Sequence to fold (274 residues):
Amino acid sequence: MEYLAYVAFGIYVLIILTGGLMAVLCRSMVRALVGLILTLFGVAGCYLLMAAPFIALMQILIYVGAVSILILFAIMLTRAPAGAEEAPYIFPWRSIAALAVAFLPLAVIGGMIRSGQVTPLVPPTEVPLAELGQTLIEPYLLAFELISVILTVAMAGAVILGFERRIGK
Amino acid sequence: MNGITHLEMYQFVALLLLGLGLFGLVRRRSLVGMLISVELMLNGAGLSIVASGQLTAASGAMAQLATLFVMGLAAAEVALILAIIIVVSRRFGHIESNNLRTLRG
Fold:
């Protein structure tokens, strides 16, 4: 049975890779957003494989349900030309610089991961939902309250920024 | 699997997401594309946190909730950036990061 988990993991990694490349390379913003959504689903699958179904559902609910819709709003509200294409590249200096920027942390952190001394716990156990709730209101109480403040401030800031032209006049 | 543990496999996937996000953040020229890249990196962070909680002796509940907080922060950040992008596109008529050179509005 264990090889099935490897097959599922491979499929999820393939989904993440395809979606990530689409999100980074497609010139059309809408296609890039579709790639991002694909990646989000792949990551949700990885959460399921790690026996964390609650986080997988939250991933789909928050990221796919809310965040990508907000990005779609950002694409649609900026009055970009149809499909919101970026201008083509004349010479790929920018891509070369981007490759260098991405490769350096990858090499450093990859080496650190390989030399890690952590003993892994192989079959991950599912945390019951009641224990998650208990953790949320005991060790994480302050963070839990603070994030509600942050969400309120962000929403208020977004509304104020949206009205800025009327105030300016 | 020549000595690669499950934890390392998930951490490498998270690292892949970080690399893709950094690549996109530098390469993209429109603000929306950069926002999409930042989301990729945040997802990698969440995956890494959950992997290090669920696959080691550390507390799984703490890790899962930390990822939940990352998701909440990402939602707040996207709402704010959406407003900023709309303001920029109103003032400049475009959202190309190369041509945004005026600071004082």
Q: What stands out?
A: Chain B is about 75% helix and 0% strand. Chain B has a mean pLDDT of 86. The domain at 6-98 of chain B is CATH 1.10.287.3510 (Helix Hairpins). The helical segments of chain B are 6-27, 31-54, 60-92.
